[in-house]
Amino acid sequence: MLNESVIKIVKSTAPILAERGEEITKCFYKRLFEDYPQLLNVFNHTNQKTGEQPRSLATAVYAAAVNIDKLENITAAVVQIAHKHRSVGVQKEHYPIVGEYLLKAIKEVLGDVATDEVLQAWEQAYGVIAKAFIDVENTMYEEAEKGEGWKGFAPFKVVRKEKESELVTSFYLKKEDGKALPAFSPGQYISIEAHIPNEEYTHVRQYSVSSTPNKQYLRISVKKEGKVSCYLHEDVQVGDLLQISVPAGEFVLQEHHGEPLVFLGGGVGVTPLMSMLETLVDQKYSGNMTFVQSSCNRNLHPFYDYVQELMDKHSFKSYNFYSKQTEACGENYFNGRIGEEWINDNLIQPNAHYYVCGPKGFMEQVVGALYKKGVPADCIHYEFFGPKLMLDVEQEQAVL
């Protein structure tokens, strides 16, 4: 437990963290990788270069400072980050190193403002925060190793590659040892530890499982963009092995009992929704379902044929939006982006649950529209492809 003096000091630093947090975290990562370059085997190199990871960490540190006396307020964020940590192999021995370099970065960036008293308070606070993560992650590691699970990464053989659109290819993966797969929830993701030729460090990336849990294979559907996805598309062939983690993530299909379900996917963000849709179809779900996809155009529309096949065989509605296509495509096809008015007129239903996944702009538009219409927060389930979706504070206040 932290005493009142420490809590007061940490909370008093929140305004400066809001102002200079990203500067601190950029300094943190720079110094950390200079002295511990092996950690580049764990961290996402692309998110470092684009600044996404420092931004995400800065947001997390600020949230911890504001809620240091009531960390239960950020439990959901802790669980989300802990899933990612477990998936990429973060260990408890990493936390003291992170704490040391975070304090050094605070001192380097803030200078005299970071007095000994401030640094000592943050050292104590970091210990409490780190313990919260370690405890959650230890439980997750134990759960991952149960049943048919494993620790860290295990070899999977690529048994099939299938093109889903001009840019998206599905990879069907089976365990090399032929054993059954661990149980997982529709919507979860796996991490791939990619050993790319001529690269000094490994690259770890997360990809949603796009197939239903079936104990036979995992299917991931990868958009060709970035170093790792290009490696998968161009270099990885049927018969090759990939190092895979046990599925993780809290964006999963909940238990429903006949209420309406609406799925909205933007681009390759549709992949976890495909796992959910397949599962519900297999279960012969009794409630009405609506499946909405947004793509640039017909050629970049993943799972088009498969969704039409499912729709023809089962009772659910399907709508498609093409943001960069002008010619007409047919009934239930729309040119342009999903708009708030269309959502209000076509998707809002009493007691419905909404599952949303896609890029930031898509998420802000769709999730914002649902909140504005008064859909309860516990009926909106969403995931953003990236370190963390953070709607602007002003927007959150406007829609909540």
Automatic annotation (TrEMBL):
EC number: 1.14.12.17
Keyword DNA repair found: no
Family classification: In the C-terminal section; belongs to the flavoprotein pyridine nucleotide cytochrome reductase family.
Species: Priestia filamentosa
Domain (Globin) ranges: 1-138
Key words of the record: Dioxygenase, FAD, Flavoprotein, Heme, Iron, Metal-binding, NAD, NADP, Oxidoreductase, Oxygen transport, Transport
Residue ranges annotated for the FAD-binding FR-type domain, each copy included: 151-254
UniProt catalytic activity: 2 nitric oxide + NADPH + 2 O2 = 2 nitrate + NADP(+) + H(+); 2 nitric oxide + NADH + 2 O2 = 2 nitrate + NAD(+) + H(+)
GO molecular function: FAD binding; heme binding; metal ion binding; nitric oxide dioxygenase NAD(P)H activity; oxygen binding; oxygen carrier activity
GO annotation terms (biological process): cellular response to nitrosative stress; nitric oxide catabolic process
Protein name per UniProt: Flavohemoprotein
Cofactor entry: heme b; FAD
